[in-house]
C-alpha cells in the first residue's frame, strides 16, 4: 500500500481500531502505555525481551526482535498507527510499518537522530533560521582522518556516531595521542570528536507537532548530569535567561517544522559560560528530561505522543506547579561497593511521606548500577519546597547531593 492511501483521519479511542503499535519495551514505552490506556486506547508492544517495563503494562506483547518480519507483520495486522520509544530501532522497521499505517515520528526523522553526523549536519543546515550551531567538531571515519584533526578541538569528547546513550560510547581526550588510543579502542567505528565546551548549565526543550502541522513547546527544563546520566531536571529552569529561553524554544519549533516531524521531540542545548547557546542532540521521542510533564503539566509528553500519532488535537503544555525530577538508578539498591552485597529495598515509605513526592518505578525486576529504575517528581507550590524535599529524599535514599 502506498503511503498516500494511508488513512490520516483521527484514530478514536474505545473502538475496534483503537490499538496503537509501540516498537520498544522500556520505561518510556511503559509510561506511554499508561497514558494511552487512560485515554481509552490499547497498546501492542513489539519487544524481544520477556518481562520488559512496557510489555508488563501493555494490552498485547509481540515477543520478537525490532527487525523481525513476522513480528512487524503481527503489529501491522493489529494496529493502524505506530510509534517508537527507542531511538535505535532500525529505521527500516518504521519504514516497513509505514507501508500499512501512520508512523510518528517517521523513519526519516528517526534516522537523523540516530546518527550524530546527520544530526549535526541538520542543526548546521538550520542554523541560519535558529541562530544556534552544534559544538565545533570533526568527523572521524577512518584512522587517517585523525591526521587532519584541528588542535583547537582539544580537550575534546570522542563520541561514537551511532548507538550512544547515557554517556555510553564517549571518551574524553586531551591530546591527539589520547584520541588515537581512544579511537583504536572503539575499534575504529565512525565517531565524532567534539570540542569540550565550558558549560554554564544544560537545558532541554520538548516540542510536539501534530499531523496537521500544529506545534506546541513546553517550558525549558534545566538538566544536571552525573557521569553522563541525567541526574535531575528542574522546571522552571533556575538559570535560564528570558532571552535564552525564547531562543531555544523558537529553535526547537523551527527544527521540528523543518523536517515535518510528527510526535514528541526533545532537543538538548548547552548554555556556555559566556551566555551563548549550542545545540547538543535530539531524541525522536518523549525524553527523560520530560518526565516532569506527567505530574506538573496539563498534558504529559506521553499523552501528547498518543494524541499526535492518533491525529488528535495536541493538549495544553501549561505547567501548573514548579517541579524537580530526580532519577532513581539501581545503585541505591546496593549499600557497599560491589554488587555482591545485594540487596536492600530503598525506604520508599519515608520518601512517600514527603508531601511533594510522586514516585514512578518502572517494574524492572533486577536492580543494576547505573540502570534507570524509576524517577521521583517533587511537585510543590514553590520551587524551593520541591528542591528542599528532593534533597531530603536524596538523604533518605543515600544519594549524594
Ligand atoms: P543521552 O542520550 O543520555 O542524552 P548521550 O550519551 O547521547 O546522552 P550527550 O548528550 O552527547 O550523550 O552527552 C552527555 C553529557 O556529556 C552532556 O549532557 C554533557 O553534560 C556532557 N557533554 C557532552 N558533550 C559535551 C561537550 N562538547 N562539551 C562539554 N560537555 C559535554
Ligand atoms: Mg544527551
From TrEMBL:
Highest taxon listed in the record's lineage: Bacteria
Catalytic activity reported: 5-amino-1-(5-phospho-beta-D-ribosyl)imidazole + hydrogencarbonate + ATP = 5-carboxyamino-1-(5-phospho-D-ribosyl)imidazole + ADP + phosphate + 2 H(+)
Keyword Membrane tagged: no
Gene3D superfamilies: 3.40.50.20, ATP-grasp fold, A domain, ATP-grasp fold, B domain
Enzyme class: ligase
UniProt binding sites for ATP: 116, 159, 164-170, 194-197, 202, 225, 280-281
Record EC number: 6.3.4.18
InterPro entries in UniProt: ATP-grasp (IPR011761), ATP-grasp_carboxylate-amine (IPR003135), ATP_grasp_subdomain_1 (IPR013815), PreATP-grasp_dom_sf (IPR016185), PurK (IPR005875), PurK_C (IPR040686), PurT/PurK_preATP-grasp (IPR054350), Rudment_hybrid_motif (IPR011054)
The ATP-grasp domain, residue ranges: 124-310
Transferase recorded as keyword: no
Metabolic or biological pathway, per its Swiss-Prot or TrEMBL entry: Purine metabolism; IMP biosynthesis via de novo pathway; 5-amino-1-(5-phospho-D-ribosyl)imidazole-4-carboxylate from 5-amino-1-(5-phospho-D-ribosyl)imidazole (N5-CAIR route): step 1/2
Keywords: ATP-binding, Ligase, Nucleotide-binding, Purine biosynthesis
GO molecular function: 5-(carboxyamino)imidazole ribonucleotide synthase activity
Functional summary from the UniProt entry: Catalyzes the ATP-dependent conversion of 5-aminoimidazole ribonucleotide (AIR) and HCO(3)(-) to N5-carboxyaminoimidazole ribonucleotide (N5-CAIR).
Family: Belongs to the PurK/PurT family.
Assembly with partners or alone: Homodimer.
Protein name: N5-carboxyaminoimidazole ribonucleotide synthase
Species: Undibacterium flavidum
Lineage: Bacteria, Pseudomonadati, Pseudomonadota, Betaproteobacteria, Burkholderiales
Amino acid at each position: 500500500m502506498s503511503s498516500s492511501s494511508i488513512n490520516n483521519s483521527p484514530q478514536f479511542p474505545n473502538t475496534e481500531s483503537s490499538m496503537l503499535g509501540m516498537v520498544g519495551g522500556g520505561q518510556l514505552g511503559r509510561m506511554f502505555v499508561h497514558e494511552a490506556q487512560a485515554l481509552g486506547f490499547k497498546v501492542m508492544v513489539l519487544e524481544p525481551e520477556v518481562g520488559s517495563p512496557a510489555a508488563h503494562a501493555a494490552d498485547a506483547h509481540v515477543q520478537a526482535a525490532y527487525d523481525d518480519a513476522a513480528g512487524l507483520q503481527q503489529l501491522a495486522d493489529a494496529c493502524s498507527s505506530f510509534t517508537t520509544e527507542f531511538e535505535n530501532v532500525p529505521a527500516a522497521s518504521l519504514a516497513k510499518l509505514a507501508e500499512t499505517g501512520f508512523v510518528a515520528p517517521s523513519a526519516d526523522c528517526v534516522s537523523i537522530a540516530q546518527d550524530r553526523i546527520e544530526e549535526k549536519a541538520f542543526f548546521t543546515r538550520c542554523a541560519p533560521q535558529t541562530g544556534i550551531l552544534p559544538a565545533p567538531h570533526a568527523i572521524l571515519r577512518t584512522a587517517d582522518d585523525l591526521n587532519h584533526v584541528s588542535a583547537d578541538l582539544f580537550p575534546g569528547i570522542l563520541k561514537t556516531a551511532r548507538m550512544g546513550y547515557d554517556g555510553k560510547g564517549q571518551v574524553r581526550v586531551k591530546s591527539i595521542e589520547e584520541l588515537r588510543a581512544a579511537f583504536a579502542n572503539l575499534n575504529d567505528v565512525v565517531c565524532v570528536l567534539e570540542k569540550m565546551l565550558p558549560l554554564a548549565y544544560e537545558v532541554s526543550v520538548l516540542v510536539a507537532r501534530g499531523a496537521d502541522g500544529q506545534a506546541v513547546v513546553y517550558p525549558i527544563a534545566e538538566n544536571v548530569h552525573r557521569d553522563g546520566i541525567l541526574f535531575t531536571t528542574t522546571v522552571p529552569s533556575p538559570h535560564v535567561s528570558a532571552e535564552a529561553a525564547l531562543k531555544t524554544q523558537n529553535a526547537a519549533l523551527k527544527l521540528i517544522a523543518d523536517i515535518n516531524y510528527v510526535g514528541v521531540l526533545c532537543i538538548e542545548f548547552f548554555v556556555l559560560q559566556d551566555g551563548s547557546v549550542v545545540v547538543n542532540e535530539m531524541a525522536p521521542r518523549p525524553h527523560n528530561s520530560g518526565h516532569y510533564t506527567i505530574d506538573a503539566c496539563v498534558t504529559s509528553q506521553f499523552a501528547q505522543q498518543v494524541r499526535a500519532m492518533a491525529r488528535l488535537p495536541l493538549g495544553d503544555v501549561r505547567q501548573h506547579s514548579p517541579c524537580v525530577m530526580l532519577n532513581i538508578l539501581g545503585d541505591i539498591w546496593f549499600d557497599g561497593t560491589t554488587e555482591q552485597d545485594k540487596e536492600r529495598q530503598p525506604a520508599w515509605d519515608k520518601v512517600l511521606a514527603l508531601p511533594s513526592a510522586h514516585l514512578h518505578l518502572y517494574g524492572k525486576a533486577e536492580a543494576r548500577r547505573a540502570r534507570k529504575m524509576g524517577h521521583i517528581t517533587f511537585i510543590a507550590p514553590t520551587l524551593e519546597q520541591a528542591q528542599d524535599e528532593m534533597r531530603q529524599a536524596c538523604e533518605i535514599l543515600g544519594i549524594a547531593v
